[in-house]
Amino acid sequence: MSLNIYNIVQYYHFLISEFLTEDGIAVDCTCGNGNDSLFLCNAMKGKGFLYAFDIQEEAIRKTHELLEKSCEFNNFSVIHDSHVNVDRYITEKVQLAVFNLGYLPESKSGISTNPQTTIYALEKMLERLKLKGYILIAAYTGHDKGLERNALFGYLEKLDDRLFKVVNHRIININNYPPELFIIQKMHETN
Ligand SMILES: C[S@@+](CC[C@H](N)C(=O)[O-])C[C@H]1O[C@@H](n2cnc3c(N)ncnc32)[C@H](O)[C@@H]1O
């Protein structure tokens, strides 16, 4: 398959297939329609464990259905709760976490992620991240005029570079609100 570098989901799935340790703990912080959860679950080949979170009933149902139907393995838990509560469910160190921000595609609910809760959940995830583990964040700029992306950028650019390295992947020759990817790796233990 040839990879479209401008397709942010294809691009971070490609990165996940390079970064993910099969027997590690993976977290889909915004499971939505379940596509990222399905990718993660199949990539772990039944060895690690996937936790998937969403606040919408519709998203939980869709993710559950997709995983039950299309995932070859059953090492997952789909949790109807906000990602700000990850520490209520996960006690292990996390090897890889994904936030795909914004709205649930094709839903009429109008529920979206928001900067405050996203950053709060991210702080918790940074603490819980395994040494050399990764967090991938897809941020969309069209729906809120870049509000969440800008808040995130402001937070991430101030992270201590001895503890975390942060990379920003973006398309620079499209004007129509292109999505961006943030990639974080933990370089040093935080506690
Ligand atoms: C762009 S969609 C995710 C798409 C999904 N990853 C997929 O593969 O289909 C964003 C999701 O974030 C969810 N969301 C919003 N706020 C949340 C929160 N505080 N905790 C967990 N999920 C949240 C929304 O309900 C929505 O389903």
What do these coordinates show?
With 191 residues, the chain is α/β, with parallel strands linked by helices. It has one domain (8-109, 124-140, 153-186): Vaccinia Virus protein VP39 (Rossmann fold, 3-Layer(aba) Sandwich). Helices cover 33% and strands 25% of the residues. The protein has six helices and seven strands; from the N terminus they run αβαβαβαβαβαββ. It has helices at 8-19, 35-43, 57-70, 86-89, 115-128, 147-156, and strands spanning 25-28, 49-54, 76-80, 94-100, 129-139, 164-170, 180-186. A seven-stranded mixed sheet has the order 3-2-1-4-5-7-6, with helices on both faces. The relative contact order is 0.16. The mean pLDDT is 95. Bound molecules: S-adenosylmethionine. S-adenosylmethionine is lined by residues 30-36, 53-56, 59, 82-84, 100, 102-104, 111, 113, 117.
**Major sheet details:** 7 strands, mixed
Secondary structure tally: strands: 7
Poorly predicted regions are none
What pattern of helices and strands is seen along the backbone?
HEHEHEHEHEHEE
What is the radius of gyration? 16 Å
Give the CATH class: Alpha Beta
The count of domains is: 1
Side by side, the strands of the main sheet go: 3-2-1-4-5-7-6
Percentage of β-strand residues? 15-25%
**End-to-end gap:** 42 Å
Mean residue pLDDT: 95
